[in-house]
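Private note to self, pasted from the team thread so I don't lose it. Backbone tokens:
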């Protein structure tokens, strides 16, 4: 689906399709990492989550570059293709989100995978809104605006996943040092963790 959506995003000049296609590639990587570390240690799971966060952030940066290009280039994306791809992606991603929902709080790895799927649903709905906006206005601006909104959501989730994974990796380092030294460890919560409790 990534290849098709990316090709059609380039062909039609749609920022929102490009944003969603790059996220589809990220999802394939995310699901692969998630399945690869199920049952492995917390360090492996946190490392996989960190890599997922970095991939999500990198794709966000790529889409920002494409949005800048579409800002200055003429042309309006094809709303028929945008709508068709938006509906197909929404059906597929809705199924994934439904299957992941009951497992989303199992661990950081499953939580980050669920977040990616939730973002996909938001993006797919955004593509449909962008297609309607382009159709109604005859302008590329609804597509660019939705593409930038989708990218903002991806970037926010990427930062969240990176922070959570980094904290989990730091915790593992403290646990490893405590085990090696034979001394008990004291865990201090940072201000963000204390606010959420």
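Design output:
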């Amino acid at each position: 689906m990534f290849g098709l959506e990316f090709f059609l995003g380039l062909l039609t000049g749609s920022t929102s399709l490009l944003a969603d296609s790059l996220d589809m590639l990220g999802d394939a990587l995310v699901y692969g990492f998630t399945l690869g570390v199920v049952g492995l240690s917390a360090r492996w799971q946190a490392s996989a989550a960190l890599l997922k966060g970095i991939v999500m952030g990198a794709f966000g940066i790529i889409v920002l570059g494409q949005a800048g290009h579409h800002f200055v280039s003429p042309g309006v994306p094809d709303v028929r293709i945008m709508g068709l791809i938006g509906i197909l992606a929404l059906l597929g991603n809705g199924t994934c989100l439904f299957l992941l929902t009951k497992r989303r709080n199992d661990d950081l790895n499953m939580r980050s995978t669920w977040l990616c799927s939730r973002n996909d649903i938001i993006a797919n709905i955004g593509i449909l809104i962008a297609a309607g906006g382009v159709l109604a206005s005859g302008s590329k601006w609804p597509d660019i605006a939705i593409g930038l909104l989708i990218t903002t959501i991806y970037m926010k989730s990427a930062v969240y996943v990176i922070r959570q994974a980094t904290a989990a990796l730091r915790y593992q380092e403290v646990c490893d040092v405590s085990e090696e030294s034979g001394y008990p460890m004291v865990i201090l919560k940072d201000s963000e963790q204390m606010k959420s409790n």
